[in-house]
Amino acid sequence: MNKTLLMLALVLLLGLGLAASNSYAAGKAGRSGFMMFNSFDLLGAPVKDSHGEFVGIVNEVMVDSGGHALAIVNHGDYDLAGPGGINTPIPFEELRIYRTKSDKDNIVLKMDNEHLDFAPYFDPTRINSRKYEASINEYYGIHPYWTETRTGKSPFMELNSLNLIGAPVKDSHGELMGIVDEVMVDSGGHAFAVVNHGDYDLTGPGGINTPVPFEELRISQTKGGQDTIVLKTDMEHLDFAPYLDPLQTYGRQYEANIYEYYGIQPYWTRSCE
Questions:
Q1: Is the pLDDT of residue 27 over 60?
Q2: d(CA 191, CA 210)
Q3: What whole-number distance in Å separates Cα of residue 195 and Cα of residue 33?
Q4: What is the distance in angstroms between the CA of the first residue and the CA of the last residue of the chain?
């Protein structure tokens, strides 16, 4: 009888050990709580601290040319008529985002309010500086992603995700392929431009919406300040890419399929190496 109990205990411990090792192997992959969001829907979302106290709201979502997103949180002195406090860019890694039963996005800060008060604030004069974004990441103890990839020497820009919507998308020959219909951001802070292409006209999109990693885009601005986007792939390749399916769950596997189609290693596998 004692031997039987001992064997059951060993089996239980082994099972727990395997579960723990699998959880550890996931590392920063964040298998639990993974979500994808339309960046537009995050605007105005309430931001709370870990005690449930209201801190501020998301004023905008910035996406750099490498596809890494920052939530600009307005906090301090403000009222319901509009923001009037401090705008602070926060990496998505420092946020926990969840959706309520009424389908509204709520955001919880992982740090305390005092830590937020001393964080680097949003400086429009420095947004196109890689050094500026590095200082934001380093404040939160995050290694800038370009130190782990080969994107460090590419042209760097910070873009308001709202301004990207409607931007024309062209191929390498300058031919119009479509427009940016929306910008999706996952809970790890990595962004996709959702390109509408196929049958559409100037009155509105009517074709296929295809999420494209920012690594596959080359973004520039005209003298008039308009964002223009060039796809590194051709139209045929885009036509067969994974499309945005409202009936599909946007889980980790769905996002992995997108990355793998373009020959990009998913970022959560890179972070676990």
A1: no
A2: 13
A3: 26
A4: 45
| Reported pTM | 0.78
Is the domain defined by 36-142 classed in CATH 3.40.50.1400?
Answer: no
What does the block give as tokens for 75?
């906090």
Are domains 36-142 and 158-270 of this chain identical in fold? yes
C-beta neighbour count of 183 within 10 angstroms: 27
pLDDT at 68 over 50: yes
Distance CA 238, CA 164 (A): 19
Q: Return the percentage of the chain with pLDDT > 70, whole number.
A: 76
Q: Which of these ranges, 35-44, 86-95, 99-108, has the smallest mean pLDDT?
A: 99-108
Q: Where do the domains of the chain lie?
A: 36-142, 158-270
Please list the residues that pair with 158 across neighbouring strands: 64
The pLDDT of residue 119 is 93
Q: Kindly report the backbone phi and psi dihedral angles of residue 114, in degrees, each rounded to the nearest multiple of 5, phi listed first.
A: -65, -40
According to CATH, the topology of domain 158-270 is: SH3 type barrels. (2.30.30)
Burial-class residue 228 by CB neighbours within 10 Å (0-12, 13-18, 19+).
Answer: middle
What span, in angstroms and rounded, lies between the C-alpha atoms of 86 and 81? Answer: 15
* Average pLDDT of every residue of the chain: 78
Is 90 exceeded by the pLDDT of residue 91? yes
What residues contact residue 227 under an 8 Å CB cut-off, 6+ apart? 159, 163, 164, 167, 219, 220, 221
Give the residue with greater pLDDT, 270 vs 5.
270
User: Is residue 30 a contact partner of residue 188, using CB atoms and an 8 Å limit?
Assistant: yes
